[in-house]
Amino acid sequence: xxxxxxxxxxxxxxxxxxxxxxxxxxxxxxxxxxxxxxxxxxxxxxxxxxxxxxxxxxxxxxxxxxxxxxxxxxxxxxxxxxxxxxxxxxxxxxxxxxxxxxxxxxxxxxxxxxxxxxxxxxxxxxxxxxxxxxxxxxxxxxxxxxxx
Length: 148
Description:
- The chain has helices at residues 9-15, 81-94, 103-120, 129-138, and strands spanning 2-5, 35-43, 52-59, 65-70.
- It is of the alpha+beta class.
- The protein has two domains: 2-70, N-terminal domain of TfIIb; 81-138, no CATH class.
- It has a four-stranded mixed β-sheet with strand order 1-4-3-2, with helices on one face.
- The chain is globular and about 50 Å long.
């Protein structure tokens, strides 16, 4: 399970395991009050040369492992949500990719979004990819996920 929390990535990079992560009050799955620290997991984020350590917790009752992840990122994505959205917006408005991000990566996001539009909204969607991105966000979906 992933819980998104406010994290200063630069501070996390400097402090590593000494970063003060928020303590969970209870297990989000079973609501038991005892949640133990369960170590760290490495995760790669844009702008950092090495993986950052994300805090893990484990519920002693149901066995649920909870990973704290910085808010502003999708699960399993190393780029910020706003970066992905701005790439798609720039491509829609100017028909060009942003120069500071590899085009293959931007194309990957756009193709995934187009595939999701076709699967969920149909071939008749005429409001543009950016509107679709925002629509999927309001539904709680990851608009650029490769899975349907």
